[in-house]
Amino acid sequence: DGLCDNAKVASLEGFRERKSEQDIMTTNQGIKVVDDDNSEKAGERGPTLMEDFIFREKMTHFDHERIPERVVHARGSAAHGYFQVYKSLANITKANLFQDPTKKTPVFVRFSTAQGFRGSADTVRDVRGFAVKLYTDEGVFDIVGNNMPVFFIQDSHKFPDIVHALKPEPHNEIPQASSAHDTFWDFVTQQTETQHMVIWLMSDRALPRAYANMEGFGVHTFRLVDAKGISRFVKFHWKPVLGVHSLVWDEVQKIAGKHPDFNRQQLYDDIENGKYPEWELGLQVVEEADEHKFDFDLLDSTKLIPEELVPVQRVGKLVLNRNPDSYFAEVEQVAFHSANIVPGIDFTNDPLLQGRLFSYLDTQLSRLGGPNFHEIPINQPTCPFRKNNQRDGFHRQTINVGRTSYSVNGINNNLPQPAARNRGFVSIQERVDGHKIRKRSPSFADHFSQATLFWKSMSTPEQDHIVQAYSFELSKVGHVFIRQRLVDQLQNVDATLALRVATNLGLKLSDKADNGFPKTDVKPSPALSQAYTAK
Ligand code: HEM
């Protein structure tokens, strides 16, 4: 409408602390403060006076400075930047941010570890969050991803369990930032769908050298929708321009002691020094007609689509070029949500994604103090401005003008009005039919083939690192039966891997190992492979 400048709004310019001419200190009520060192007392050596509103205000505010940290991904670092598409993707999506190669869409990206507390060390063995907020002309689009392409579990119903198993143990809050403990391994050796992600976690991918050396993945299969309403499946990838590099275990441990802010510092310094980290957006696009042609289920988040089968098309660039001004206001208060999508993008029925669509907004209601956290500057959409009939609630800042906050209303001509169908968000018309049922789809049954594929794709030093990681982690597990169960599970991944870890742990390969899990030959059918690689 000509009134809203997307980049300007995303710069948060209007929200920064205003400078007065002399920068004189005041209370929150604007009263000038004369002495900021001493409380007001009854006599030089007397008690502090109750009426000292200057002291009370300062102390009260300090007492309430903290908000709850995130239940997962509490430790994070973030930066501003932009995304730009190389050429129009109108043939596969109508999403506005993918149409015009001259348009720069403002972004805010937060990297994180998943397990540790807000003050834990950067260089630990963990999955890293890679959450991207795109302030598009059609609203906020979040790709809330990780630096590994698969996830531990297939159904979100298990998320509280995996997190309770992974987090420090509840009786003594040990370990602070590590998966090397009994409850984690007890869980993952029984919930065998975790084994693919677990081998990624034992690999060098869990020890990134820098955020700028990490890949990012949307993990779930999403949909792209074009202007005709035709939908295709898509996996989102972020490919670091500097390439993927990891630390080795010995470095990780020393750095965690000597410089716990290692990754955070580098991100900050690189941006301050003009060495802007960059990633290319990659897409793996699959036609709807091919949904059932894979030997795994596209709705199963413990599976990736091998790049040899469906190549990653690089379609645009993400550049991070500005550090936040306030860690709290921006990095701590930012609220990502996988349900934040824009027209041209849609969900699938992945049961892990479906649960996330509920969880993020729900947790942010308590983390960020009520239903108005979308008004916090970092979370506000840019253009168009927000407008609806929602009102009031804790911390409401918008001063809505006018008499009506309902529709249909005859007093204000029904303003605001719903958009025309082709300008707003409309879900794809997917037919959904079935009995209510609480059951895992049989198409999710193969828990090991892709773990084997991953192991076989590793070079010799990388395999050595994986063996060392399993051996170290399990050496921290007190219950020997859990160690044995892991070795049993590894027999389903690879016999040599299992033997090497068993030997390091002083265990034997067990003939009780359950090798009855369904496994598929993960080689793609030649015809399908050819169809996608030729594109
Ligand atoms: C953060 C839930 C799976 C990536 C969070 C938070 C919750 C949550 C409650 C804290 C959010 C906040 O306080 O603002 C879940 C649930 C999942 C799930 C219920 C599965 C059922 C995943 C998966 C990924 C992921 C599969 C990656 C693809 C992240 C990231 C953050 C996060 C990157 C940090 C966002 C930030 O930087 O603020 N998740 N999560 N999560 N989650 Fe998940």
TrEMBL record:
Keywords: Heme, Hydrogen peroxide, Iron, Metal-binding, Oxidoreductase, Peroxidase, Signal. There is a cross-link at H337-Y360 (3'-histidyl-3-tyrosine (His-Tyr)). Its cofactor is heme. Its EC number is 1.11.1.6. One of its GO terms (molecular function) is catalase activity. One of its GO terms (biological process) is hydrogen peroxide catabolic process. It catalyses: 2 H2O2 = O2 + 2 H2O. The active site is at H73, N146. Heme binds at Y360. It is an enzyme of class 1 (oxidoreductase). GO terms for cellular component: cytosol. Coiled coil: none annotated. Residues 26-415 form the Catalase core domain. Belongs to the catalase family. Occurs in almost all aerobically respiring organisms and serves to protect cells from the toxic effects of hydrogen peroxide. This is Catalase. It comes from Ramazzottius varieornatus. The chain holds residues 43 to 577 of 743 of the full protein.
